[in-house]
Fold this protein.
Amino acid sequence: MADTAFTNATQILEPFKGVKKVTIEEYFTSGHRTCQGCESALVMKLMVKAAGPRTIVLGSTGCMYVANTTYYTTPWVVPWMHTQLGSSGSAALGTAAGLKALMKKGKMKSEPINVIAFCGDGGGADMGLGAISATLTHKEYNSLILLYDNESYANTDIQLSGSTPYGANTTFSPPGSVKRIIHTRWKKNTAGMLAAGHTECRYVATVDASYAVEMMNKVRKALTIGGPTFIHSLDPCPKGWDYDPMLSHELGELAVETGVFPLYEVEDGVVRHYGKTKAIVEGRPRKPVREYLLKQGRFAHFTEEDLEYFQAKVDEMWDKWEIPGVIPFWKERPGK
Amino acid sequence: MAVETKPAGAVADHKEMLISGSEACAEALTLADLDVVTAYPIRPYDTVMQAIAKKIANGHLEAEYIVAEGEHSQFEIVKHASTVGARVFCGSSGVGWMYAMECLTVTPPLRVPMVCMVGNRALDDPGAFGVEHNDALVVRDLGWMLIWVDTAQEMLDTTLLAYRIAEDRRVFLPCAISADGAFLTHSQSICQVPSRSLVDKFLPRYDRGDLQLHPDNPITVAPQANEDWVIEIRRQNDEAMKRATTVIDEAYADFRKVMGRGPENPWFEEYMTDDAEIILIGMGTISLPMKVGIRNMRAQGKKVGLIRPRWFRPFPTERMVKALSKASAIGVIDRDYSFGSPFNSGVVANEIRAALYNADQRPPLLSFICGLGGREVTLEDVAKATDMCFAAAKAGKSDPKTHWLGVRE
């Protein structure tokens, strides 16, 4: 029986004030078999470190399911459950609704329990987008959906997703002797789309584990603000991006410094750019995208023309977008 | 709309209500103190979700009522709610059920005791609202318990029974209750609705036990098992389904004890079979024209009876064989199809054939397909099938052809 009244409150998770203040306990530990240099495994570790022990994690199909949880081993110290590829939104919603119903009706002790559902870019930006969208409208259920974006279906042999960058070499878009660029679609602006389209979702953010403390603090904010929230993490992937595993951290930084992946949050409708992204918005020059692209084997077939096209598309994000790096759309220019 | 009638004919601790099959289900869900329910519109099952919404709006039921953005999410949401310990309800019809198919496949191995209503509907295209049983039947191999009901009363009782059986720790499998679209979902009849205190005596609270997903019980659920363990996990499902047979018998016995009513035989209804030479078989509301047809034929001196299977999974093999072995011939009328199957028969006919294979007494069996897309099953259809059964009984052998009744050739 409940000994406290149900209030729908969230946990109190203060931001870490610097790396030395980060708690030492780990809730994602040994027991997985992710690749050397896997940034997504780091994201899992930091995500649940920020969330703490009173957390339930749901994981949709993808690398972070298959490589993390082989029967009879598990890296998860907190309760964890698999959900279907397109079901991160539904898993978060169902778990939160189940807990809420039981606590409200006095069938379970009332306490704030973090509910986090993660998905890859295939599960999030492609198949699961509809369910995530639905969940972000259910403001009475507290949950976080974290998209770990390694820019391909990396668990099934590196196939392109709606979140794969233009022109990348994947097993579904191999450059050939006649056609150089098979993947001609531009990467979805997933976080911007979800922030713009769900006006009662109180928190949407982008993160990059190269900036670990900022990343954990965004997770904490997402878990404490109330209602459904969304975080998009860009995760360099040595296997899918074809680079030396030692470069994961550096590529994460370059993605931000070149303006390819902006770091920001949208809190109650207010946009805040973070770190190097903030500097870019304030006028600091971006590094050329070639510095980022040419470190990765998946772009090795790029010609000057391809690099210029990519650069021009990224330039648009900063020079023309209504809110740089976040929301596109052009205001009609006078006289045109 | 539900109309409460005078309690004149009511059983003790019951009230009488004039309600549809869907409304009867909602009455049972209210009595079962449902925790989480997910809705998505498709005819004809959605009438149950409309009835539940009214129950919540009027304060008769406290439950989280979530309108999903599709059946896939609809079933996933309640699946996850169940893993933290909530009593859940879901449902669909026709292609909606198919849209949820991925989620339907994972629910039994996760041992989630979800209860669903399938308002049986033809699988469009071509567009059709009417009843066919192929929707619910697609999960027959996957670990779902499947039951077909015939009346609003049976729907109400079965809903309570389904939770009792599914949530039994020896079972922990999902259960789908099939109700023929329109004929049952939308048709009203007088129902005996038990009191909350009776239901509380019969239906214990759902206890997820050591499988509950909660920070106090930090387990990892549904990891990658692969060839190392999958076959053992499948075997556990198989054992659970076998145990369900015992649990179903126990639950019905207890239901009769607590409620003072309910069938002696949970597995199938027998109608005028005691002295029957011909036994007809049909699931769901097809029993109505079959029973009327049988009464007419009885008036002509023809000894015909009906077996109406309730539980299709688990299938009551031995009991069915025993009940059928006394017949001179059997006629199975399927409201479904299984293209390219043995003898091109419907699903039920081939299940009955398989059940009889090892029997000492194997009466001739005829297979019929009738009433697809919700077409009326007429008394002429029933009489025609029966006459063919009498001919097979006289010849002493089965007619291997599957006969489509009431179809324009």
